[in-house]
Amino acid sequence: MNLLDYVKVLRTRWITVCVTMLVAVVAAVMYTLTTIPQYQASTQLYVSASSGSSITDLYQGNRLSQERVLSYTQLIMGETLAQRTIDRLNLDMNAASLKARVTAAAKPNTVLIDVSVRDTSPTRARDIANGLSDEFVQMVSELEASPVTGASPNARVIVEQRASVPAKPVTPKKLRNLLAGFAAGAFLGVGLALLRDQLDNTVKDRETLEKITGTGLVGSIPLDKDLHKKPAISFEGNSSSVAESFRKLRTNLQFLAVDNPPRVIVVTSASPGEGKSTTAINIALALAEAEHSVVLVDADMRRPSVDKYLDLVGAVGFSTALSGGASLRDVLQKTAFTNLTAITSGATPPNPSELLGSQAARNLLSQLREQFDYVIVDSSPLLAVTDGAILAANSDGALIMARYGQTKREQLAHAIGNLRDVGATVLGTVFTMTSTRGANSYSYNYGYYGSDRRDSVTKSPTVMDRVRSQAHDPPDSPDASRDNTQVAEPLDDPKQVTRTSDGERPGR
Ligand SMILES: Nc1ncnc2c1ncn2[C@@H]1O[C@H](COP(=O)(O)OP(=O)(O)OP(=O)(O)O)[C@@H](O)[C@H]1O
Ligand SMILES: [Mg+2]
């Protein structure tokens, strides 16, 4: 992963980072609010050793004091002095507890000792610090006194600075806790985002999609709230990003095989809810918009939706015609859209796979091929049932929907395997419900095109290579200008080229 990849991950997973940071900051605030404030009172002790009046004696006395200072700091933090202080001040605590509140530190190369005592009460902190220091003066005089001769002690301690009542608590440190929470949250958030990215095995980019499927990406349909509410787009005068994405898909479809474009196309996917029906309907509508006569067949007999999405009669349809219950004429329904006819699924039969794999189904599809320019077949998910694969084998090819950030890589690979196993042609893949925001955005700057309805082709090497090889027209050849394609002004994405709208009406 390079720096750009990291930035991309963070842009995609910014919610993870923000939520983790928020949780850490809230935890820091909670910790700060629930921590009982501690006050610290300090004294300073001066250690002096008795010595003669000569310079040597004074020097030795000073050294003696410095050496003692280190031992004294240990004694100050010891349990004996703690117990003596408790007795002296009549404190309601044990020696271990007091000992834990006391710290003593010797200042280097001096004979000074700083003593600090922490307590939840500021006055008690002061009293303990002063009482402990006084008790230590007493203790040293006892320790340093010669037990044999009873001579004056070798060293003595003076409380050089007494403690006063601390004005502010030393803990909790509000700002420090908040900053620590923020930093920890950011660190954890970024880690979590990277981890989630590593563990994410859904398809989110073209390279992965094309590698798994072995075919080109022929379209990317953005996630669109309106499409969710109203699955059939009204293409007339519509230059929204989602309408343009279907126009692009339409153009790419026609360029899949310039001389013999696929006309009976099965729309399928690995799993349920990946946008098959919505995409099938709008591919049909986009083709109808370009003056092609189109029939949309709902061959998903397990979970039919074309009748619901297009507000049609669902009871009589494909299954009825296949079982001989009605003629093809009877099941064809006019839709509210020009050039678009539909066949709903009909009543759910007990044996959809058998019905779809029957000779009757093949005959019906060829009759439809005769009557219409395009036959768009909505089907069931490939990993659930064999219906989609059976249909694909009897068509010109299948378009595989992959839901952005949802379809798992192995599911997609498995679905492609199912299609290849039955000898079906995989025309290409379509990303559905792609993110329209952030680093993984698949939306383009459609405003650039205005409403002139030119379709742009996303330059997928696989698709374009096929176009070129089938048109026998190398891209750099001067003859390329004879083609009805035009290279447009450079776009945001230099890989994109813009082409004029649809080619010829396909021959029957
Ligand atoms: N581009 C899109 N933007 C927003 N919502 C979408 C889009 N495509 C599909 N949806 C929504 O996703 C849901 C599933 O879509 P759809 O019914 O087309 O999927 P499906 O693959 O046909 O499902 P099933 O396997 O159940 O037949 C629907 O609620 C639909 O409105
Ligand atoms: Mg469906």
From TrEMBL:
<dbReference type="InterPro" id="IPR025669">
    <property type="entry name" value="AAA_dom"/>
</dbReference>
<feature type="domain" description="AAA">
    <location>
        <begin position="263"/>
        <end position="402"/>
    </location>
</feature>
<keyword id="KW-0067">ATP-binding</keyword>
<keyword id="KW-1003">Cell membrane</keyword>
<dbReference type="InterPro" id="IPR005702">
    <property type="entry name" value="Wzc-like_C"/>
</dbReference>
<comment type="similarity">
    <text>Belongs to the CpsC/CapA family.</text>
</comment>
<keyword id="KW-0472">Membrane</keyword>
<keyword id="KW-0418">Kinase</keyword>
<keyword id="KW-0547">Nucleotide-binding</keyword>
<keyword id="KW-0808">Transferase</keyword>
<protein>
    <recommendedName>
        <fullName>non-specific protein-tyrosine kinase</fullName>
        <ecNumber>2.7.10.2</ecNumber>
    </recommendedName>
</protein>
<dbReference type="InterPro" id="IPR050445">
    <property type="entry name" value="Bact_polysacc_biosynth/exp"/>
</dbReference>
<dbReference type="Pfam" id="PF02706">
    <property type="entry name" value="Wzz"/>
</dbReference>
<dbReference type="InterPro" id="IPR027417">
    <property type="entry name" value="P-loop_NTPase"/>
</dbReference>
<dbReference type="GO" id="GO:0004715">
    <property type="term" value="F:non-membrane spanning protein tyrosine kinase activity"/>
</dbReference>
<dbReference type="Pfam" id="PF13614">
    <property type="entry name" value="AAA_31"/>
</dbReference>
<keyword id="KW-0997">Cell inner membrane</keyword>
<feature type="transmembrane region" description="Helical">
    <location>
        <begin position="12"/>
        <end position="33"/>
    </location>
</feature>
<comment type="similarity">
    <text>Belongs to the CpsD/CapB family.</text>
</comment>
<feature type="compositionally biased region" description="Basic and acidic residues">
    <location>
        <begin position="492"/>
        <end position="508"/>
    </location>
</feature>
<feature type="domain" description="Polysaccharide chain length determinant N-terminal">
    <location>
        <begin position="2"/>
        <end position="77"/>
    </location>
</feature>
<feature type="region of interest" description="Disordered">
    <location>
        <begin position="450"/>
        <end position="508"/>
    </location>
</feature>
<dbReference type="InterPro" id="IPR003856">
    <property type="entry name" value="LPS_length_determ_N"/>
</dbReference>
<keyword id="KW-0812">Transmembrane</keyword>
<keyword id="KW-1133">Transmembrane helix</keyword>
<feature type="compositionally biased region" description="Basic and acidic residues">
    <location>
        <begin position="465"/>
        <end position="482"/>
    </location>
</feature>
<keyword id="KW-0829">Tyrosine-protein kinase</keyword>
